[in-house]
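Technical note accompanying the year-one report. For the benefit of new consortium partners, we illustrate the data format agreed upon in the data management plan: each record pairs a sequence with a structure-token string. No post-processing was applied to the example shown here.
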Amino acid sequence: MSDTKEYIVDKCYDLFLAHSYEAVSISDISKAIGMTKGALYHHFASKEDLFRSVVEKHLVLPVASCDLATISFSDFLESNIQEMRTLIDTYMNYSPQFTPLNYISFIIDASRHYKGFLDDKEKYVKEETAKTELVLKNSIERGEIRDDISVSVTAYMFTTVFMGFAGNLVMSTQDTDEAFNMLKQQIWEYYRLLKKE
């Protein structure tokens, strides 16, 4: 992406965070980026095309990036918590318009106005759940986790707890430390129930 396109995408990220997709007009975008509509259309074919670029750059979800074959389940969970923390801190520092509610609205707009977005996120959930299943199975074999659990259901439960972190942020009146403490409590309580005595 050229520097100019990158600049437009970043400025529009602020707009789409602060206002709904429908509320942001081409005139608003043109004014925010300091370019004519013609210059904007030189870089992006349409508002939809621009919005897709904004979503692709700024709607990134954490991905487990550890050795799935050898990591313990407790270390896997801790790694995911840290990746989530890093991602949220990055979001909060990237745009002054970032609030949990704005971000959730942005996700909803992406679901409505970006064809294929929901399919991509469904694929993401399946892939992350499969990674969690693998770590769970290995942890059962090593004796860390009880063997009388449904691996698939448990893996999906952990994936959705991480995805529900945005709800923690909203409920904690946007205090990220409080939200992360709640996430950790949820994760480690579930872990405690699974851990082999």
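Partners are asked to follow this layout when depositing records. The chain has two domains: 3-57, 60-194.
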